[in-house]
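Proteins fold reproducibly. Look at a concrete instance:
___
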Amino acid sequence: MALGFFSRLKQGLSRSTQKLGGGLSGMFTRRRLDDEALEELEDLLITADLGPAVAERVIESFRRSRFGTEVTDDEIRATLADEIARILEPVAQPFEPDPAHKPHVVLVVGVNGVGKTTTIGKMARFFTEQGRKVMLVAGDTFRAAAVEQLQIWGERTHCPVIAGPPGADAAGLAFEALTRARAEGAELVFMDTAGRLHNKSALMEELAKIIRVMRKFDETAPHSVLLVLDATTGQNAMEQVRVFRELVNVTGLVVTKLDGSAKGGIVVALADAFGLPVHAVGVGEQAEDLRPFDARDYARGLVGLADAPVAG
């Protein structure tokens, strides 16, 4: 399964790989790693959305270890994959519910269109297949389509869905869900939320109210706040992290739609800038295309290395 997912990861990252790996192939057939070559490589890393800070760090590492030597594109690829993996490894933390909390309450946030509802559905499937009892809450009450979509995922995964009429009070749904979850022995509650970032003050007020109501029931809730980001937005994802961290205590990230983007380097920039756990990445429409994040596989897929070790 792990090897199969690496193949899908590589396929999903193909646009990013073409941008970064294709640039490396054109730049380094066999070439001395001098100042000019390093400057070109730095520009390539920045345009591949790894960001200036990561690019500078990688270039300094190359300057210390390989400056003045002749290198091939394969050697650069392998070294670059190692450098990227080193940045990603501290944040590659699969999401694991805390058994001390029953239910473990997960608030899922993000702007409209990033794939919050689909991510919740895919995570629900992942945990129900592990035998966990999961409940879903349709807290994006202003979007009928989001409520309907979550109800469809509930049917697919055999998870109860707490939903109300259009425009229902999301905080009231949260309290109903936590009450039912405890009564029914649910282990995990995933709550969808609105993503109307254009009205930041209203969104902040709504999220704060949801959390206040949750804490009347359980003073430690929510136990996780997952921010879902769409890779196709590239550097805009950095700003979304900054904004949502002002609104709520974001505890981890899920990055979706990598298959539709040439901006896979943004995951590296996010890891370097914020150090937030990256729990999962999405590389396709299928439920199994959202998988726990593996730093080494991702780094090798991003630079276009063909082989990858089979993860356990």
